[in-house]
Amino acid sequence: MNPDIAQRILSQATLDASGPFLALALGVLVLVFLELLPALAALRQIVFLGSLAAAAWAATRTLFGPEIAAFEGTYVANSTTSWWALLFVASALIAWIFGRRYYRDEARFEGEHDILLLTAASGMVLMAGSRDLLVFFVGLETLSVPLYALSGFRRARRESVEAGLKYFVLGAFAAAIYLMGAALLYAGTGTIALAGFQERSELLETPLALTGLALIAASLFFKISVFPFHLWVPDVYQGAPSPVTTFMATGTKAAAFAFLLPLSFALPPESAGLVAAIALITMAAGNLGALVQTDMKRLLAYSGVAHAGTMLLALAGMHADPESGGASQAVLFYMAAYTFTAGGAFGLLTMLETQGGRPVTIDGLRGLARQRPGVAAALALFMLSLGGIPATGGFLGKYLVFSVAVRADMIAAAVVGVLISVVALGYYLRIIVAMYMQPEDATRPVPAESRPLSSAMALACAAMVLVLGVLPGWFLANVR
Amino acid sequence: MTHDVLSLSVLVFLPLVGALLVAATPKQAAGLQRGITLLTTLAVAVVGVALCLRFDGSTAAVQFGEAAPWFTLPGGVPVHYRLGMDGLSVLLVGLTAVLGPIVVLSTWGHIHERVKEFMVWLLAMQTGMLGVFVSLDLILFYVFWETSLVPLYFILGIWGGERRLYATIKFFLYTLAGSLVMLVAVIWLIWTAGTTDVMRLLDVGAGLPLETQLWLFAAFALAFAIKVPVMPFHTWLPDAHTEAPTSGSVILAGVLLKMGTYGLVRFGIAMFPGAALEAAPWMMALGVAGIVYGAFLAMAQTDVKRLIACSSVSHLGYVVLGLFALTEAGLRGSLLQMVNHGLSTGLLFLLIGMIYERRHTRALDQYGGVAAVMPVFALFLVFAVLSSVGLPGLNGFVGEYLILLGTWQASPWMAAIAVTGVIFGAVYLLMATRKLLFGPLVHSENKALTDLNGREVVLMLPIVVLCVWMGVQPNAFLDRADGSLRDVQARVERARHLRTASIEVPPAHRLEIEAR
Question: Most buried pick, A40, B41, B149, B265, via CB within 10 A?
Fold first, then answer.
């Protein structure tokens, strides 16, 4: 190798920029190595957690500093990407802790599970920091391929295999569409770097480039689960093992948004109306879909679709103030609140499913408030936060997103949006009704055993939801 | 920030502290939980009344103000934790504080299950309601406004009647829909004005062009109209009231609905006076429609609790009518009527709750001749009904009289129709009283009814005293609101002046002024 290039690549700035990714990737390598030595299996958890902690530490180093560009500007680390990285770490940690002892038949493959989880997380970090269509694609596949495997991880279960296959086939299509879009964009503009698009913005107006952009947007919308690309979500979320669902619901969406935000300057301003319309339809599709569900995972999957729609509304309003970064901050804050809220909710469902030995339905939650008041209270708090009731992070996220829309003069869209979100309370309240207001079902007893680690995690999630709602000052001042 | 014990922060968060204390008690210690709750609400009542007594009503200035930076919204708009009391809130704060221990005492009779949870929600509710009345930051107001839904949702949903789940979800979604439309207006207003300080927003709002004012007014008024509830939005109320436990009904009628009327004055009329003037005829019409329609609804009820709920719709119609008459008498009357309604209707709900605890039915035809076995109960009920129908010498009379006077000044027609409501009100309430109390004792079950016990009498006495006091000496109360009401009136007059000025000036001339 040319020593000059080697020096450029291995500079301190590069190491700083790619720190979170390196930490996770190293963790993966060590875990693979440990798999070879069964005697060292006890170290697995330490390596897993250590690697997450190292990634978080690396991310905080670039949290307040200036933007660092690495690898010829194809990858950057700035405040936003560092926040995203922290969020991915949190998401992986939540999924992992709630998923302890979830696998029975597959317990001996838990090592693989952790490796795949960590690999996916590293892919997310790569996606958020990439400023180049191909680097992003590498990140996307590093995320997606482990997730396909994870979705089908419970190989003895039909639903799980079905979810894995469904996700894989559709995900492969989405990846192909993405590549096609990237190729067209390259053909139209002669570059695949985001900075290059900015320089040649006039070329983005050509039909070739527009088609490419539309294809890329479609594939990202697939990951975010935006209408009409959301149909896979309920099936996959329901069928996939619950810890994986927890991770997917919070992390994947965030990673796709993390790239969509810097990319969206390339979208022509006239598309704002279209994006807003898609956002509203997504909200409606998600909320109406969730309204008729009985299975909790499926219900939260639809609710996740609705939340993706809400965040997309901020993207639609982005063109009004591209400089101030209001939309980016709104989405980041919303996603942070959503990660802890939905992560906590899915996590508690994972715990209940593990203990009860069957999927949790709304009726299955009956009497939870009596048997396990703490779990019920946390779940109720998460539901209220998902519904956007004040004093929770969900409310402030909603406030920020809708204020982006209002500032962009899309008041009609904002009004329609809030009215659609009333529908959401219809099913969130139903869950609280089951837990607190309905007599318990004698045929389906609520498991009473308590789990210290999961409880601590739920408590942490609940605390974060409240902090983001009541004392958001520090976050609002620093998240951008 | 003051460090006085008699501060609004203490008032607002004392119940929440009590709630945390109750939450920390062991599950089975119901007596302890009740005791803590009662002591907390008593302390809140003392602080609240002391603040009201210290309040100087001659000025519109905010008193007991507190402010601390909270967080900064994107765009650099600082949000404050800002509390303060003025003439519009003082009486309602007093009402909320005084009703607290009364409601707690009333739960002795009907809350026997999950006492701990109930007390926690009850106290949380009080924090929410007090917060709504004393927040002077728009975001803080909104936070209190919407979070106060949650405790009532639990109170209704857990301790309510048979159809409680339907009623709670309807109540929650209905009010939430209105609130969220208001949220969009809140976002727009904060973004345009660059501040969340309510007192500054009052000036900003009044200065906006009329069309903008109308839109914002519509959004705010919708939220408040649903809460009040004004006539076409009233359908959630009878369901919620009927299904709620007694204490829930008392809070709902006594305080929660007043959040809507309070919002209409502060954020409807005072903030967008130009739009309020435009909308006044419509709002008055809705008020009158509510008065008459509510009365007819009440007349047709056989369930006595539902009857009182419908009478609420009618009585709150008066409040809306008086507010949007936009005259001095109308505003004063409405403000007084808010408190009156809280006391009289609260008392009625308490009484109905007490007899329900004994007889477990609310059907009017199951009663009759109860006065013979429960003379004390009968005395109180007759008193409550007379106060509610506006017997001169009691509180209801002064409020209704002022409202009708103020309405007459604005529109004699409306006043004429509204007067019929007074008559109808007397008809259905007195008819219900007759069916309940007098006549022969047809049902043998009623013969064994026991009269009110000491607790029940004691808890109602403060309301009775207040009803008489307000009837005899209404100015002792109204004087506290005077300064702020004059201020609201002045804002309306300014807008009226602007409107007539802009109509008189011919367009060409106006252009010239703008060119200059």
Answer: B41
